Amino acid sequence: MMRRDGRRPPAVFALLLMAAVAGCYRPDERAGPRIAPQLVAVENGRLPAVAGMKLHVFNTGMNRVSSLLVGSPAPWRPAPAFVIERPGRELVVFDCGVGTEIARESEGALNPLTRLLFKTRSLPGKDLPAQMREAGLPPERVSHVILSHQHFDHVGSAEGFASASFIAGPQARESSRSRINGFEPAHTDWISDAAWFEVDFSKGEPYATFDRTIDLFGDRSVVLIKGGGHTPDGLGALLALANGPVLLAADLAVHFDWLRGDDVQRIVSDGDRAAEVRNRIREFMRLVPAAVVMPGHDLSQVPAGRDDIVRHHPELFLPQAWPIDSE
Ligand SMILES: [Zn+2]
Fold first, then answer.
1. From the CA of 169, how far away is ligand 1's center (Å)?
2. How far apart are CA 277 and CA 283, in angstroms?
């Protein structure tokens, strides 16, 4: 099969298609390495907190990944987006959620091959820029948009942040151009090279339980964490919120069910790396039990009682708020 541009579909999709044809799910159990029980480069074992720093949590839609890729059950899961407020600074977005085309066409907006494996839903007015405006957080005030990776449910409304700089993972642009275009709606092609920055984790330092990190603003407020299991360009972020640390795990840890077991499922590009990063997150949770972890597709444990974490429309965190099938 050839794409419109004459190239063959990427091997990963061919493999997924074969898996779909084979019709049965086999777990991919990986124990991964043991992680040293220590918080590296953290003074007195206490992670920093920046006075006045806040996190805004939004949901932009719901996705359901085929049980061919994740086994059963394969529930509908949220597609969140986050806005970070640093005192005296412009806003920072971490992931954009799904785009407006999903509200209009659901998975019909995706390539027919992708559509076999993903269902996705949204509603008009529930994209991130629209919800931000409603919340009094103008998208024009966003100076940086961090993209955890280039999948459609994380970059979906990037167009809404025309004046921002974009921070992406290693070789993210190359991977989105060569691998995903044609299979997902393109949302980042318009961004100029001058506004596009890719993190070089080879210059990264160990921090807490993580092997490679980059201190984005030099003040420990937003520390980027190298992923590389789900997609090669993956990254997460450790935030020094006023009342305690929050780990935005993105698809380094897709949801809490995924963190509980050893099955890395059929949603990883590097299963061994995915297992290692998962173990690093587990060790972090064990050593810093007060930290709040927000996986890429799980808003079930976003605390309600913190004034540095704002839950916008928490009713939208639940599947029943969205136009989903009951099957
Ligand atoms: Zn995702």
1. 14
2. 10
Least confident among 1-5, 54-58, 110-114, 157-161: 1-5
- Ion ligand 1: residues, Cβ under 5 Å: 153, 251, 296
The span from the CA of 151 to the CA of 69, in Å, is 16
- Select the CATH number that applies to the domain covering 40-321 from these four: 3.40.50.720, 3.40.50.300, 3.60.15.10, 3.40.50.620: 3.60.15.10
User: Tens digit of pLDDT for each residue in 15-36?
Assistant: 556 555 556 889 899 999 999 9
Amino acid 107: pLDDT: 94
CA of 152 from ligand 1 middle (Å) equals: 8
